[in-house]
């Protein structure tokens, strides 16, 4: 066989998924709630709304860089749907997710931030009589098992770690007024995702023991799985609104605004540093 025919045949036989996604010079920014993306939207220059199958995406510029912003809604299905629509319609080069979470690391307090080096579904597994359930999702394109933990893009992770040292974050408000003088901590860790709001110290401890979780929420791993399967760099950033214990609902109502602003501030700083 002639060399050029062999090369052509090899190209035809390559898996189709290897070349299916063609990125544009755009950064995708996602958040689960309106407040989590409000600060980002307010910072946009030349904002323009684009509705795709009922989901509102806002395009614009941040520090001269093209971005597209959207609210995913709560839960894994909503997050996956919005992410897929964003990737299909806007073709962002990278995706950043900003939002709040419950803390499962006992050393963290509301207001602290977890930059996710990896994410995992904590509510996905097989139920069998054996002691080793399968917790890995399966790629619908390749038919292969995904990793248990979806790794963050190393470049975005490193950038976020560097940028976080120079961002001024808000302290948590105190019951009697004023703001806590405790410095907000920013760590790199593990974020786990499930379709459940965790308000149980026992469940939080279990997630810590089973997954090494530093925080738990309801969207991150779904976003990460879509990006992983389509080979799009991603990073999930979570600011703690509560400690995922029996007081979680009370703490959430109190600390959510500050936590959401802190997460958004770090994402804005990352975009500025790209």
Would you give an account of this structure?
The chain is an alpha/beta fold. The chain is 34% helix and 25% strand. It has helices at residues 3-13, 34-42, 76-90, 154-164, 201-211, 220-229, 248-273, and strands at residues 27-31, 45-52, 55-62, 65-71, 94-103, 113-121, 150-151, 186-193, 215-217, 234-242. Strands 5-9-8-6-10 form a five-stranded mixed β-barrel, surrounded by four helices. Helix 2 runs parallel beside helix 7, helix 3 runs parallel beside helix 6 and helix 4 packs across helix 7 (248-273). The longest helix has 26 residues, at 248-273. It is globular. 40% of the residues are buried. Mean pLDDT is 87; it is low at 3-18.
Distinctive features:
274 residues; alpha/beta; five-stranded mixed beta barrel; 7 helices; 10 strands; 34% helix; 25% strand; globular; disordered N terminus
Question: What's the arrangement of secondary structure elements?
Answer:
Elements (H helix, E strand, L loop, with lengths): L2 H11 L13 E5 L2 H9 L2 E8 L2 E8 L2 E7 L4 H15 L3 E10 L9 E9 L28 E2 L2 H11 L21 E8 L7 H11 L3 E3 L2 H10 L4 E9 L5 H26 L1
Parallel strand pairs: 1-4, 1-5, 5-10, 6-8, 8-9
Antiparallel strand pairs: 2-3, 3-4, 5-9, 6-7, 6-10
Give the helix proportion (percent range): 25-40%
Structural class: alpha/beta
- Main sheet strand line-up: 5-9-8-6-10
The residue ranges in which pLDDT falls below 50 over 5 or more consecutive positions are 3-18
Strand content: 25-35%
First and last CA, distance: 47 Å
Q: Biggest sheet, in brief? A: 5 strands, mixed, barrel
What is the count of DSSP helices, taking H or I runs of 4+ residues?
7
| Strand runs, count | 10
Radius of gyration: 20 Å
N-to-C SSE series? HEHEEEHEEEHEHEHEH
Shape: globular
Averaged pLDDT = 87
């Amino acid at each position: 066989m002639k060399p050029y025919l062999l090369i052509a045949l090899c190209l035809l036989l390559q898996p189709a998924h290897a070349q299916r996604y063609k990125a544009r010079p755009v950064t995708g920014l996602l958040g689960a709630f309106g407040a989590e993306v409000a600060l980002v939207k307010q910072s946009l220059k030349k904002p323009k709304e684009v509705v795709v199958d009922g989901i509102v995406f806002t395009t614009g510029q941040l520090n001269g860089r093209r971005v597209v912003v959207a609210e995913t809604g709560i839960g894994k299905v909503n997050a996956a749907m919005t992410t897929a629509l964003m990737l299909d319609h806007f073709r962002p080069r990278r995706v950043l997710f900003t939002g709040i979470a419950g803390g499962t690391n006992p050393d963290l307090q509301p207001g602290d931030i977890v930059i996710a080096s990896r994410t995992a579904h904590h509510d996905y597994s097989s139920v069998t009589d054996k002691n080793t359930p399968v917790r890995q999702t399966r790629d619908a394109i390749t038919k292969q098992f995904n990793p248990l933990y979806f790794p963050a893009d190393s470049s975005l992770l490193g950038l976020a770690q560097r940028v976080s040292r120079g961002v001024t974050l808000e302290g948590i408000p105190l019951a009697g007024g004023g703001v806590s003088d405790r410095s907000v901590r920013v760590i790199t860790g593990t974020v786990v995702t499930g379709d459940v709001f965790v308000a149980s110290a026992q469940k939080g401890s279990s997630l810590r023991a089973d997954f090494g979780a530093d925080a738990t929420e309801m969207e991150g791993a779904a976003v990460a799985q879509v990006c992983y399967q389509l080979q799009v760099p991603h990073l999930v950033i979570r600011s703690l609104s509560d400690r995922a214990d029996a007081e979680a609902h009370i703490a959430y109502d109190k600390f959510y605004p500050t936590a959401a602003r802190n997460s958004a501030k770090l994402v804005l700083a990352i975009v500025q540093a790209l």
